[in-house]
Specification:
about 350 residues, alpha/beta, 5-stranded parallel sheet, 4-stranded parallel sheet, about 40% helix, globular, disordered N terminus
Length: about 350
């Protein structure tokens, strides 16, 4: 009797699929820490975690994460804590709003203590150098939850939102109007990595940092992304699929709020300016928003606003980052040692 072997299709579970993903870096301090492939990997895993959260509820069982915040937070703190809990891990919160991390002891000593107790460090600081110094001396993963230079977790959540709304990120044009701040920096680097187009429109004297512009431009040359800077918000809006703005005075710049208000007034995203974008354009903001300053109520509270989709996606992106940096097996890049 002749026996024929039927073709068998083996189903791959979400967890098995996730195990195929990895990062080359052991820290996430800057968007530029990722390669184009790795940036896409984070978004792919975030989508998987969002679609099938129950499949990953034990992914980080036994892992501990410490969150150290020098600045106030709503979205960042809750999404990291909720995300860690959803993956089976635990988190500890250190409130440093009253004093900087370095006020009691040297940053490198803080790093070398924390690496003995927990599996990962999340930092929300003023000085970006604090995060880079912690990462230099700690042998465990360090994640930038916001610094004055970058906000990389936010940028990835924003591009996950764009991917959900438009599909192919290489065909997306993003217009950012306002201050060339930490959010603008990370958006520019993310756009460069993911092959998107971004135009940054700022008042003269408030452009993004030159080092970030040069870094993003170098990445864009390899990915085909388009990075443009202008002082004309109308120019930035033309054919834009998404319009993004942020507060005119970031945390630590509150004393400049009044003086900045008159400078940034032409960059307010109101109905007239928003109308210069594509008819299907969506409105984006990292929150918190100051209605009546950088954006009007008519725009941010309209059906075309996706600000709460962005906020939700902070959870899924950060869960993906935690899995890729803290996970066991092939999900975790081998940890370097600061004492080797």
């Amino acid at each position: 009797m002749r026996v024929t072997k039927a073709a068998t299709k083996i189903a791959v579970s979400p967890v098995q699929a996730a195990v195929q993903m990895s990062l080359r870096t052991s820290d996430f301090v800057s968007m530029a820490d990722l390669s184009p492939r790795e940036a896409a990997t984070v978004l792919d895993l975030a989508s998987l975690l969002k679609a099938k959260p129950k499949e990953f509820r034990d992914a980080l069982t036994g892992k501990q994460l410490v969150l150290i915040f020098e600045k106030p937070s709503l979205r960042t703190r809750v999404t990291f804590e909720a995300g860690m809990a959803a993956l089976g891990g635990t988190s500890l919160f250190m409130d440093q709003r009253g004093s900087r991390i370095s006020s009691r002891e040297e940053v490198r000593d803080v790093a070398r203590n924390l690496e003995r107790w927990v599996d990962g460090i999340v930092l929300r600081t003023y000085d970006h150098a604090t995060i880079t110094e912690i990462a230099e001396h700690a042998s465990i993963p360090v994640i930038n939850a916001l610094s004055d230079l970058e906000h990389p977790c936010q940028a990835l959540a924003d591009f996950l939102t764009l991917k959900e709304k438009f599909g192919d990120l290489c065909s997306v044009k993003l217009a950012y109007v306002g201050d060339g701040n930490n959010v603008a920096h990370s958006l520019m680097l993310a756009a460069a990595l993911l092959g998107s187009s971004i135009t940054i429109a700022t008042p003269a004297g408030f452009e993004p940092a030159l080092q970030i512009v040069l870094e993003a431009s170098e990445i864009a040359r390899k990915t085909g992304a388009r990075i443009e800077l202008t002082h004309d918000p109308v120019v930035a809006m033309r054919e834009a699929d998404a319009v993004y703005t942020d507060v005119w005075a970031s945390m630590g710049q509150e004393s400049e709020a009044d003086s900045r208000r008159s400078i940034f007034a032409p960059f307010q995203v109101n109905e007239k300016l928003f109308a210069q974008a594509a008819p299907h354009a969506i409105f984006m903001h990292c929150l918190p928003a100051h209605r009546g300053d950088e954006v009007t109520k008519a725009v941010i509270d309209s059906p075309r606003s996706v600000v709460f989709d962005q906020a939700e996606n902070r959870l899924h992106v950060q869960k993906a980052i935690l899995m890729l940096l803290l996970g066991d097996g092939s999900l975790r890049f081998p940890t370097r040692s600061a004492h080797a």
